[in-house]
Amino acid sequence: MNSLSPHTNLAVCLLLPNLERHPDKVAYLCAGEAVSYRQLADGVYRCAAWLREQGVGHGDRVVIALADSPVFVAAFLASNLIGAVPVPVSTALANENYQYILDDSGARVVLVSKALADLPAWSRTKSMICGERLGDFLPHALAVPIEAAQAGDDDLAYMIYTSGSTGKPKGVPHRHADFLFSAKTYADQVVGIGENDRMFTASKMTFAYGLGCSLMFTMLAGASAILNPGPSTPEQLLALIAQHRPSVFFAVPTIYVQLIRSVSEAHLDLPMRFCGSAGERLPAFVLDAWRELTGLELVDGIGSTETNYVVISNRPGAVVSGSAGIPVPGCDIRLVDDSGLDVASGVSGHLLVRCASNARAYWHQPQVSAATMLADGFIRTGDLMREEGGFYFHLGRSDDMLKVGGQYISPVQLEDVLRDHPAVADCAVVACLVGGLERPAAHLVLKPGFSAGAALEKELRAHAAARLADYMRPMKYAFHDDLPRNPSGKVQRFKLKQ
Amino acid sequence: MSVTIAALKELMLATGLDAELVRQLDPARPLIQQGVDSVDYPGFILAFEEAYGVAVSDADSLRLKTLDDFMNFVAARA
Question: Do B29 and A289 touch (CB under 8 A)?
Fold first, then answer.
């Protein structure tokens, strides 16, 4: 027996039905370990006990800097269970980013992957270094069922950081019911995730996309999932697919492009019943090439960390190539012009979304929150779209942010790095399309005495590679005498995009 | 214009790819299988277009998988 209650706590909603229905069913397959729902619950209880010993209580933030693994899931649910707020963060960040997130979130505790153990960021916060095997996680702690914390309508269940326009990440907190809405609408009604599914997602659980598929939708459906603690290389993904034969696979378009390019044969036989895509615009030619290679449909959709999950999606069996699809049930969609008035069908407009899973505010950012989370309940996503015949087509961003491989990039962050190079007097970073996908392009003005050329470009590439995450590295370097500016001196990035 | 595997490898080095990785590339195997990642690949395509004055369409960008493919792409347009 367990003492899980009440049912409004997200951890209870995820665990309890599975413990009652099929406690010995495998919930997770990861790096040679198969973890049943019962074993997962024991790991959750052990971690919850440890967190309480550290003084973690209701509303406290618990940063989870772990690779995808059953330990990640247990830490996340344990935090929920005691009313704390898990804050999953990527294991690929630089030390200063971890420090910023620890400070900004006011984390009480951080759980750290062994691979990150030596970073100085953890020195000022209570931390625990964790491996990936649940069987080795807190082996001496007692797995005693505990009473779940009450979860009210406004209580936070998790917070995910997303890139901000200034280069500093913003915390996006969500409540306990938010993923229940996304599971009921997108996972159940749109793509039909069920108990017999075996899920596999290339995106990590530190992103809302991966968190939804690998943790929330898997457990709410009583399904199983494959977790990959390593990098999502095509070789690794195809090996795990061959080994574990998932029924559903989710990834961002960049991953599908990589998979297509990695295969020499004309046909790739895969076990999935369908594949999902989100995180960045899916070009029609990628969808077509994937279907030609695998015979499988790519069901594309669009959402954001702020809306929690996908809010516009194609439907399996009825995919419209090049379109993000139609609204997910329960999601109100508006496309508006610059003055906030609805645009006519066929005209591009700013995407506004209202649904029950919308975040109500950014963490400690009232001004940005007011500009994004509007008083009427709609969220301004920053995407430009066009609607035709009820289907929505993504046209790009209405701000300066870039979306690369499913991750937002602020141009400011890249420009700061490039300006540190002794040859660079001024610069602007904008998106360019390479193979149909957005990639960063650097536009530079050089200081006197420096000349553009292959040698300098190579030096700039090395400079950026040493200071930026891989996906942020500019693909293209263009040299100018001056950058286009408006009368007040602001760089007109839209002119550089042309 | 003709192109050689050696010239393509030189181009890769100019875009900042690791010298040892480039040296070991098998021209007949997909580059992705040999460690050229999602960041290196588009950078190489852009450099390839500029160096050889060719346009790689979106669909072509998925068909150019090996160094041999890149070499044959230029040869077919000579």
Answer: no
